[in-house]
Amino acid sequence: MARALITGITGQDGQHLAEFLHGKGYEIFGVVKGQNNPRAQQIREEFPFVEVLSGDLTDLPSLVSCLETAQPTEVYNLGAISFVHFSWTQAELTANTTGLGVLRMLEAIRMVGGQQNNPIRFYQASSSEMFGKVREVPQSELTPFHPRSPYGCAKVFGHDITVNYRESYGLYACSGILFNHEGPRRGLEFVTRKISNAVARIKLGVQSDISLGNLDAKRDWGYAGDYVKAMWLMLQQNEPDDYVVATGETHSIEEFLELAFAEVGIADWHPYVKQDPRFFRPAEVDLLIGDPTKAREKLGWKPEVDFPGLVRMMVRHDLAVESAKLSK
Ligand code: NAP
Ligand code: F7E
After folding, report:
1. Who lines ligand 1 at CB under 6 A?
2. How far does residue 328's CA lie from ligand 1's centre (Å)?
3. Alpha carbon 251 to chain centroid distance?
4. Which of 41, 66, 164, 327 lies 20 to 30 angstroms, CA to CA, from 30?
5. pLDDT value of residue 96
6. CA nearest to 177, candidates 161, 195, 196, 156
7. pLDDT 10s digits, 129-148
8. In whole angstroms, what is the distance from residue 312 CA to residue 277 CA?
9. 253 lines ligand 2 (CB under 6 A)
């Protein structure tokens, strides 16, 4: 039976991936950090088919122990300090978790190995943030990296060490260079969910406005539910490789605002949006747009949810959640 070990199970992608792999009949183990992490209980309640294991990407013995218990056929390394803005505040923690954490997991895999004739396959969650100050548009697997944040620098290390371990030790190790992907499970610190949640609350009269940073930034935004399928597909190929996963379209934050407010019947968003210097970054990534040709041609992957569909899904979800809170 296929067995998957997922780090970052409490995050957006971990939850989508667990749901997807469960549908494929996998036995699933999820790594949760901390001695009393409140999100562990949420995972046990919402995903009873996931066996929760205690582990931390900054603690090699705990990763070895997780692998020994789970005996996985596939490892998905989704755990990370993932909020770019926060990575300037705790750059060392970010380097240790998001960067060195990958090396620790690769070393743990080398130590534990996997079943004979069925070595562990490894997926690394690389990021479009590695392209940073982009050298070309759109960005493909061959575009040079120029990260613009401690997070981006840590992801470049994680990416390079994954490629290096594949080339040095013959591990089946893949890096998915994923562009932004969102959805109702997105953390409230990220701009799309911050907007969808605020729009719902403004519509319901419990919030008057929203403060944002740089509105000129553009992102290639897709739906997280689509992107976890690409992760799985990468581990089902004959040979390990790296793939850009993206929609190939870019949209501005202003376009997101336009569609989100329109969804609740507000035609002009300007009176509700303020700009606050606290939400600007020391260095910015202005124009990310991915070229997913290789993923389409080799994996047969394509996104199902388009940009308006994504905004609609997020706003409707938050409207339902916020309305339910009010009626309690
Ligand atoms: P997320 O929602 O922020 O989840 C991050 C996960 O990492 C959480 O489960 C968190 O656990 C866990 N984590 C943090 N520190 C850890 C540690 N020391 N040891 C073990 N686990 C730790 O992120 P996401 O959006 O699902 O993204 C998944 C992965 O893809 C991340 O590596 C992210 O950097 C990468 N990525 C994301 C995107 C995107 O657009 N979503 C795009 C490209 C790449 P707690 O809940 O306990 O904090
Ligand atoms: O910012 C601008 C901000 O925090 C998007 C992570 O999953 O995707 C994500 O990183 C843009 C930036 O995501 C606010 O300056 C304006 O230009 O939603 P975000 P991100 O930085 O793109 C990549 C691919 C990852 O790998 C990461 O793990 O929006 N922006 N005003 C704002 N951003 C936030 N968060 N809050 C604001 O108020």
Report:
1. 7-8, 10-14, 31, 33, 37, 39, 56-58, 78-82, 97, 125, 127, 178, 180-181, 187
2. 31
3. 18
4. 164
5. 98
6. 156
7. 999 999 999 999 999 999 99
8. 28
9. yes
